[in-house]
Design a protein that fits this description.
about 400 residues, alpha/beta, Rossmann fold, Glycerate kinase, domain 2, 2 domains, 6-stranded mixed beta sheet, 5-stranded parallel beta sheet, 13 strands, about 35% helix
């Protein structure tokens, strides 16, 4: 029996790899002789670098760059096992995870550190660049990123604008003569789950601004700032990106990449599955176990990692079960998307800090419970009467033939 363990990170508690290993420990207690494939995943947000480096036998680099508020921070990026593909996730340097709630400031937050990481990757002589755009704390349309890569964003008097969304209102012209030419020489793949446009009621400021600390009064100002960036950027490049799906990713970084590079946008989970050779490695499995911190209707609507894993499994005839830290409104929608089953981690009422603090143990226990259920629940009562005590039952026999 072969089981694939492919969770995303459990935000605030476990990385995808830590979650996968916890799940494996729980399963081994029930199925000690099974073959296990540990396959941590990400949808382009936190953990994209870790997952791809792990899956491809790559290398992680850690550099000192600026966080979204301009403070020094150590941030990681990766070189995949082929030695020619780099992966950089915006969450590492400029992510929400690096800020406390009181520090959230979407008018000031800047993507300069993300650009510094990209610059470091380009210096390695790579041929391909994968950029993960989930989990950012920024709303500056990627202006800081472009500045770090050599672009000059100027006021009417020829001086540089201030970094962050609040400075975009003074943007008058762009000088791209110093932009790193390597951006036009490498193949760029943008890994993200966001399809939102840059501007408007479904744009990045309106939809994601509140999560980054934007008030109702600030959101229109942020939208104006992004509109100004797009106006000047589109005039400079002869391109348009404001209404394109994905332009709103990472507070408008998607739009910057559309305007100034030839980047291709792909669902983050699809990038990880492809680069990690999921179909090849998972072939012949009886069951896939996915996971994430919170499962609700957004998992289906946004096409998050568990759904992507489930889709890949269904294409191979392998059922997928998701184990979630929390089940919230609309999680049942995943069944409409083809998920075989969904179960929560928490075994009894407890505080949020307790759940986060002991997440590994609770996840291991949940996997143990799941394995016990799949082993002991028989297809029908008649089979229960005829089956000798202790007989092993493969999980695929209980939730559908593979």
């Amino acid at each position: 029996m072969k089981i694939v363990i492919a969770p995303d990170s459990f935000k605030g508690s476990l990385t995808a790899l830590q979650a996968a290993l916890a799940i494996k420990r729980g399963l081994v207690n029930v199925w000690p002789d099974a073959e296990y494939l540990v396959f941590p995943v990400s949808d382009g947000g936190v953990g994209t670098v870790e997952a791809l480096v792990y899956l491809t036998g790559g290398t992680t680099f850690v550099d000192e760059v600026k966080d979204s508020l301009g403070r020094k921070i150590k941030a990681a990026w990766g070189l995949l096992g082929d030695g020619k593909t780099a992966v950089v996730e915006i969450a590492s340097a400029c992510g929400l995870m690096n800020l406390s709630p009181k520090d959230l400031d979407p008018a000031r937050a800047c993507t300069y550190g993300f650009g510094q990481q990209i610059q470091k990757a380009l210096e390695k002589g790579i041929d391909r660049l994968i950029l993960g755009l989930g989990g950012s704390a920024t709303n500056d349309a990627g202006a800081g990123m472009l500045e770090a890569l050599g672009l000059k964003l100027l006021k009417a008097d020829g001086t540089p604008i201030e970094r962050g969304a609040h400075g975009l209102g003074e943007l008058f012209s762009i000088d791209s003569s110093g932009l790193n030419p390597r951006l036009g020489e490498v193949e760029i793949t943008v890994a993200c789950a966001v399809k939102n446009p840059l501007l408007g009621p479904k744009g990045t400021s309106q939809i994601f601004g509140p999560k980054k600390g934007a008030t109702n009064l600030l959101i229109p100002e942020l939208d104006k700032a992004l509109a100004k960036f797009h106006e000047v950027g589109a005039k400079h490049t002869g391109r348009s990106a404001d209404s394109k799906p994905g332009a709103g990713a990472a507070g408008g970084v998607g739009a910057a990449l559309m305007l100034f590079t030839e980047a291709t946008f792909v669902k983050g989970i699809e990038v990880v599955l492809k680069e990690g050779r999921f179909a090849e490695k998972a072939a012949g499995a009886s069951l896939i176990i996915a996971g994430e911190g919170t499962t609700d209707q957004d998992t289906l609507w946004w096409g998050k990692a568990p759904l992507g894993v489930s889709d890949a499994g269904r294409a191979m005839g392998i059922p997928t079960i998701t184990i979630a830290g929390a089940l919230e409104v609309g999680y049942q929608k995943l069944y409409d998307g083809g998920m075989a089953a969904v179960m929560g981690v928490i075994p009894y009422p407890m505080s949020y800090p307790q759940a986060i603090g002991d997440a590994s143990r609770f996840l291991e226990d949940a996997a143990w419970r799941l394995a016990r259920i799949l082993t002991t629940k028989l297809a029908d009562a008649g089979e229960a009467e005829s089956r000798p005590a202790g007989t092993h039952v493969e999980p695929a026999l209980l939730i559908g033939e593979t």
